[in-house]
């Protein structure tokens, strides 16, 4: 297949014929296409994902569709998101080596990326729903975020390179538009594609949509998201965009990548851990042992949240002290003048800003996963709707509190204590 042919979506039936002469794929899995086994496993909202197994190995073929898969062809979406995903993956690999799948081939015309098949990895969200405790995720994700967010910014990059990259990713307009509407606006009015667990949540939803402080805060965060082109973000860093084993963590799916505020990736990620926390009760089966397992899971998730933030801060601070080569907070103004404390004071300000904003982004992300179009499996897989609504109501209340009061919250322990208190309430 070459990039010059008109775009055509792959299928399980056509993949072997169409990619049978692709050198990169054949080198990984073998040329004997008669023995290729192809499965379509995409369970995300947007794309096709195939696992292709041959005689000498396996690979992933990911292809964008010209529309939103979740909704259908009534919602067109440009194929160029695959281009942004490819370029984001190459930058993430350079800035945080070993944190993303290896890329074997990219075909822009067919909007497809052939990449490493991660096995026996599973999606982190699924592991958390099953009640599995992964020992390394906080460290691995904290390092990934610090390295990609720091090294993709004017704290580190050559200004000319960063501005060129900013211009490149500025064209990811439609994916940003999805976030701008689905995350920051739609949840706060009765937008067409919204849904929620009804009637159980109806009155709480009405209350949130009438909450002026919350709406203003959501729009301030949208303003920040749309205008603060601070660094190259992953753009959709939730537990469904992370694959894990007990010892390995890889970030996938950065098709929403663009230059935005550092706090966005961190906030979205932590929001998904807090949602996993509030959903645990919905996955608790009868029996004392089950209760103990989910209690342990709740404690684990709060620990993961603390550790992720601690690792992020530590690595960001380390990079600040050792790799601050960009045009911001130049060493020539601080360390080179013998003013090491000045550099530390500036670091403190930068981290403080990330902290304030991440709580806002986290609160909004929680709301959109319960009130908007794109829900998450943490809650959706709770079959008992009353129980699901109880879990969701607690998460909504928590999200509202951290979004609106974020400037009065000073530590991650304070946020976790709030989550634990809300979780303890029997009814909301
Ligand atoms: C229409 S796309 C909905 C959501 O799916 C993606 O994973 C993003 O999170 C997006 O907001
Ligand atoms: Mg995705």
Automatic annotation (TrEMBL):
<dbReference type="GO" id="GO:0009086">
    <property type="term" value="P:methionine biosynthetic process"/>
</dbReference>
<dbReference type="GO" id="GO:0046522">
    <property type="term" value="F:S-methyl-5-thioribose kinase activity"/>
</dbReference>
<comment type="subunit">
    <text>Homodimer.</text>
</comment>
<dbReference type="InterPro" id="IPR002575">
    <property type="entry name" value="Aminoglycoside_PTrfase"/>
</dbReference>
<keyword id="KW-0418">Kinase</keyword>
<keyword id="KW-0067">ATP-binding</keyword>
<protein>
    <recommendedName>
        <fullName>S-methyl-5-thioribose kinase</fullName>
        <ecNumber>2.7.1.100</ecNumber>
    </recommendedName>
</protein>
<feature type="domain" description="Aminoglycoside phosphotransferase">
    <location>
        <begin position="38"/>
        <end position="299"/>
    </location>
</feature>
<dbReference type="Pfam" id="PF01636">
    <property type="entry name" value="APH"/>
</dbReference>
<dbReference type="InterPro" id="IPR011009">
    <property type="entry name" value="Kinase-like_dom_sf"/>
</dbReference>
<keyword id="KW-0547">Nucleotide-binding</keyword>
<keyword id="KW-0808">Transferase</keyword>
<dbReference type="GO" id="GO:0005524">
    <property type="term" value="F:ATP binding"/>
</dbReference>
<dbReference type="InterPro" id="IPR009212">
    <property type="entry name" value="Methylthioribose_kinase"/>
</dbReference>
<comment type="similarity">
    <text>Belongs to the methylthioribose kinase family.</text>
</comment>
């Amino acid at each position: 297949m070459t990039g010059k042919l008109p775009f055509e979506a792959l299928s399980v039936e056509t993949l072997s014929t169409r990619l049978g002469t692709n050198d990169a794929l054949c080198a990984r899995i073998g040329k004997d296409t008669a023995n290729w086994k192809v499965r379509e496993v995409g369970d995300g909202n947007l794309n096709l994902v195939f696992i292709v197994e041959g005689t000498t190995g396996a690979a992933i073929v990911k292809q964008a569709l010209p529309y939103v898969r979740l909704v259908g062809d009534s919602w067109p979406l440009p194929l160029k998101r695959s281009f942004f995903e490819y370029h984001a993956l190459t930058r993430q690999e350079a800035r945080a080596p070993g944190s993303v799948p290896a890329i074997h081939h990219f075909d822009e015309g067919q909007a497809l990326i052939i990449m490493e098949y991660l096995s026996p990895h599973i999606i982190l969200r699924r592991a958390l729903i099953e009640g599995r405790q992964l020992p390394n995720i906080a460290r691995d994700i904290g390092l990934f975020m610090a390295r990609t967010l720091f090294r993709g910014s004017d704290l580190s990059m050559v200004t000319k390179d960063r501005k060129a990259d900013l211009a490149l990713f500025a064209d990811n307009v439609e994916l940003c538009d999805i976030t701008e509407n689905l995350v920051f606006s739609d949840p706060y009015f009765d937008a067409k594609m919204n849904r929620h667990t009804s009637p159980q949540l109806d009155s709480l939803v009405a209350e949130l949509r009438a909450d002026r402080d919350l709406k203003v805060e959501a729009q301030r965060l949208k303003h920040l998201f749309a205008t603060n082109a601070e660094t190259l973000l992953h753009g959709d860093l939730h537990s469904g965009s992370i694959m894990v084993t007990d010892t390995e963590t890889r970030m996938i799916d950065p098709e929403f990548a663009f230059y935005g505020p550092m706090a966005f990736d961190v906030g979205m990620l932590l929001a998904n851990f807090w949602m996993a926390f509030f959903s645990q009760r919905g996955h608790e089966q009868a029996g004392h042992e089950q209760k103990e397992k989910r209690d342990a899971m709740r404690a684990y998730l709060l620990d993961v949240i603390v550790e992720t933030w601690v690792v992020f801060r530590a690595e960001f601070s380390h990079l600040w002290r050792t790799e601050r080569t960009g045009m911001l907070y130049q060493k020539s103004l601080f360390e080179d003048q013998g003013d090491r404390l000045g550099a530390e004071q500036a670091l403190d300000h930068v981290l403080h800003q990330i902290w304030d904003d991440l709580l806002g982004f986290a609160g909004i992300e929680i709301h959109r996963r319960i009130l908007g179009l794109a829900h998450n499996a943490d809650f959706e897989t709770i079959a008992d709707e009353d129980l699901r609504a109880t879990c969701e109501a607690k998460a909504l209340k928590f999200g509202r509190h951290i979004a609106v009061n974020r400037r009065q919250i000073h530590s991650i322990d304070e946020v976790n204590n709030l989550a634990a208190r809300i979780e303890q309430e029997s009814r909301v």
